[in-house]
Amino acid sequence: MVRLGVVGLGSRGKGWIAGVLVNMENVTITALCDVYMDRVDDCANIVTNKHPDTEILKTTDYRELIDADCVDAVLCTAAWEAHVPVSIYSMRAGKPVGCEVGGAYSVEDCWDLVRTYEETGTKFMFLENCCYGRRELMILNMVERGFFGKVVHCDGGYHHDLREEISFGKENRHYRLRNYLSRNCENYPTHELGPIAKILNINHGNRMVSLTSTASLSAGLSEYIKNKKPDDEELKNANFAQGDMITTVIKCAHGETITLQLDTTLPRYYTRDFTVHGTRALYEERTDSIFEDGKHNHDDWSWTKNFGNAKEYAKEYEHPIWKDYLENGLIGGHGGMDGLVMHAFIDSLENDKPCPIDVYDAAAWMSVTALSSISVSLGGAPVEVPDFTRGQWLLR
Amino acid sequence: MVRLGVVGLGSRGKGWIAGVLVNMENVTITALCDVYMDRVDDCANIVTNKHPDTEILKTTDYRELIDADCVDAVLCTAAWEAHVPVSIYSMRAGKPVGCEVGGAYSVEDCWDLVRTYEETGTKFMFLENCCYGRRELMILNMVERGFFGKVVHCDGGYHHDLREEISFGKENRHYRLRNYLSRNCENYPTHELGPIAKILNINHGNRMVSLTSTASLSAGLSEYIKNKKPDDEELKNANFAQGDMITTVIKCAHGETITLQLDTTLPRYYTRDFTVHGTRALYEERTDSIFEDGKHNHDDWSWTKNFGNAKEYAKEYEHPIWKDYLENGLIGGHGGMDGLVMHAFIDSLENDKPCPIDVYDAAAWMSVTALSSISVSLGGAPVEVPDFTRGQWLLR
């Protein structure tokens, strides 16, 4: 039984608790922390409603939670700005930490994560749930089995209309708001980059070498606020630093390219646009379709006929993780991804396994945000992606 | 009646003649030129089979064709490398020229086109047929009527599996082959960039300011040749300079961004991926769908339900050019676009109108190829897009 302390109890932390953690047999929540005490009380009630005998440490200071004897491991679901400080404090305290996703504010922050891990040896896992997406894992499986030939290019995006969430207002100010007001970068790359990095063996024989990032103007949020919240004195005249569309192009050591688009302040449907393009096949999440060389004909392809055909490949290529999961029943949010990533974290603690998404993955993926900010500020200039493994990617 | 000389009689030139020109009442073909005389004879037969009384000058020298008294205007459908020399010679000879699409080999070539036009005053039209695509024009109409709000970002691509065409072999060597062997750039940007440039008012109050371009490794053609032409001594060990995927990101004067992808040597279905993203709506050619703010809900959108919905907007927003065209019957290839762009060129000659796609459009759009080559060679460094209008874009 892992005794877990949770830092950060906004909607994501609360969702983890209510949707996943209280249902896990090998986890008990023993401490809760947020800067708002009402959130702590709210989440404590969720836990004790399900497990009446649980004693819970409640605090607004994450250091107190991490240092508490009742806490074996820490889950950081706080605002983006807290991810690195909480993770570092936790590793220094010898408490394994599972960290929610987001981008880094500086490259040095990424190095500090790596240094702290290397100095302390405390487990760190980056909880990128999309690495456990059903299609992401199926495509990874197909890539590993050679279905795509040589993978040459991948696309991904965070195409998610967050205008309402960002501008909800003072009464429930979201951490995204302050970021969108003051930063201009690919602020949320890992949902799409994580699965792509696994496919391209980043940090395991391959690495990201350089990137460029280009920001569009910012118009979506201002227009939205003008229409939806015309009386909000603080927001109606706000200038958002964040461009509506950030396009990032990454070059890898073996010549593969990756494009990422951050697209969160214009009207649209949701997609992570996960796209894998190899010498023998193409997969597109947007249309959930696979184009297979030799089988499909590019003159005879249409969305009415072929879109959605990826499911036909599931019988042969469903990833073993998902096969097990479907047999044993899904738990958790986001279509099962949450349960799987948390299971992997807890499993690595209980059975002393390496974390499947480790500190080097986190540093590389999170650094894209900081590097994107630099490239945008330099008019799209290419910037080097650090090698956080210090050459070990050639050996791992 | 415009007496037209055609330079370049490969499959595109022949297609123009057989599919469009011999059916136009106000055009007669009076001269034909290609470096291969059998192509000239072949095309001459096509013309005389339809119009037995036509006298045709046949030559392998484009200068002879352009200088001939029987030629009022020139159509250049030759290999990419000939577009600029033929167009310049034609303008200097006082013969209006319609030039097929392709990219430029140098920025200076683009300036030479502009200088020659300005010095001679001879009409020049860039025959970008995709500017006359049905959806492209409908979306342009919608943008002009405010449907999209402020347009912030556009995507486009030339996603066209050309492996067979490029590697067909010595016996019918395509001009693409030599380009793919020796260059590495966005070699064919205008099918998608043209319609986007019209939407973003490039050269008319807006301009492209800078771009970055990143090339992936080259693997698709080599693998294709290894499988399909294992005995081709010349090609089986060829090293292709051209990366399989070239991603170009363009920044415009008012902050709009454009992405272009050249994707011609991997297996896939065809799309130009024409995508227009504004503060009120999104159009995606890939799924032929429109997401309209307020009408559509991003939590309730699916490809099974919504893809293909663009046709529902045609009743209100079909472009007047296409309304007329549908009523009067389509002619020409590529779904009618060819007939429309040729009609526009001939109309500008007969009625002394300005060419709707002029030398400044051609220079700006074609320059993307040359600039992309520079950026790729500099590791994705941003390069400036010249202002070929010399400031007139602020006034036009």
Structure summarized in a few sentences:
2 copies of one chain form a homodimer. Chain A is an alpha/beta fold. The first copy, chain A, has helices at residues 11-19, 37-50, 62-67, 83-92, 107-120, 134-144, 163-166, 175-182, 190-199, 220-228, 303-306, 314-317, 320-328, 337-350, 359-377; strands at 2-7, 27-33, 57-59, 73-76, 97-99, 124-126, 151-159, 208-215, 245-252, 257-263, 275-278, 281-284, 289-292, 383-384.
- Rg of chain A is 21 Å
Main sheet properties of chain A = 8 strands, mixed
Which strand order spans the largest sheet of chain A, edge to edge or round the barrel? 13-12-11-7-10-9-8-14
Q: Which structural class best describes the helix and strand composition of chain A?
A: alpha/beta
User: Outline of chain A, from the CA principal axes?
Assistant: globular
Number of helices of chain A: 15
How many extended strands of chain A? 14
**How far apart are the first and last residues' alpha carbons of chain A, in Å?**
31 Å
Which stretches of chain A are poorly predicted, pLDDT < 50 over at least 5 residues? none
User: Could you report the average pLDDT of chain A, rounded to the nearest whole number?
Assistant: 95
Seen as an oligomer or otherwise, the chain set is: homodimer
- How helical, in percent, are the residues of chain A? 25-40%
Largest interface: A-B, 61 and 61 residues
Proportion of residues in extended strands of chain A: 15-25%
Question: What is the H/E string of chain A?
Answer: EHEHEHEHEHEHEHHHEHEEEEEHHHHHE
